[in-house]
Design goal:
The protein is built from 5 helices and 8 strands, in the order E-H-H-E-E-E-E-H-E-E-E-H-H. By secondary structure, the chain is of the alpha+beta class. Helix 1 (16-43) runs antiparallel to helix 2 (48-70).
Length: 182
Amino acid sequence: MNDIFIEQLVKKKRTARDRIVFIAVIILVFLIPVTIGALALKQVITGYFFWIAFFLFCFGIWFIWFTRSHQNVEFEYQVVQDTLVVSKIIAKRKRKEIMKLDARTIDLLEKGDSPEIKKMNFVRVYDAAEKSSDDKNTTYAVYQHAALGRCALLFNPNEKVLNGMKPYLKKEIVLKVFYNRG
């Protein structure tokens, strides 16, 4: 029997929210030490306030780097036999497995935002796509979770990942996705 192992790495694109957080952090990093420095000049107490402001500024520079690097998010899709494993990699330092999905449990696999999916209600939505859910290249995998109920996975699989899942998908899904029938 052939063992199937396919993986794909997708880099998440930064959103407007990520940019706003980054700008807010930069403003705070410069605002706090300047305020402490101004208080030190106004009060003319001691030079300790300047050292506190200096160390806060150095910590702030590190915090800017830390915030920006944690906004570098990648998703890894692995197909191992009949299981799709989705992991989130943060700043190329931290890996977190988001979910494991048996390909046989997928009820619907659609590319783009179809009207059929818009009508559905999901208990949980796992977003592992490079862009937002409004993107036309995002694939929706709808499945029934044993404990949670109807869930959805948003992701951007390439042809290799889809072909790796193909033997385990339901016949209707294979016909629709691979042969444009149904």
